[in-house]
What does this fold into?
Amino acid sequence: MGFLSTADVGIHPLRKGPVNHEVALSTKFFEFMQARLPVVVSDVKAMSDEVTRVGNGEVFRSEDSKDLARALNLVLGDPERYAEPYERPGMLDEWSWEVQPQKYVALYEWLLSDLV
It folds into this structure.
């Protein structure tokens, strides 16, 4: 994480369309967040919704280089604005490995509850 956190911004340019692009939050996305990087993501549903909710970056239209440049200019022009959400108490806790196993256990217990 030390090396990644030396970057100015994390860019995740997934193409719109493939279902897994639209519904998933990728490992790279979480790595950017744990490194406390401002992010610029394409307008795939799950990632753009999360960035909009959290306020840690900007969204650009998939496969639109001019819109990517616009989003990058916004983030690079005011990096403190996009880093601020990481200062909120507990903001990264939801996505930490320490919290995730509890969610998996609860999910598996729920899925298996009809079988037991």
Notes: Residues 65-77 form the longest helix (13 residues). The longest strand covers residues 39-42. The helical segments are 19-23, 27-34, 45-54, 65-77, 79-83, 100-112.
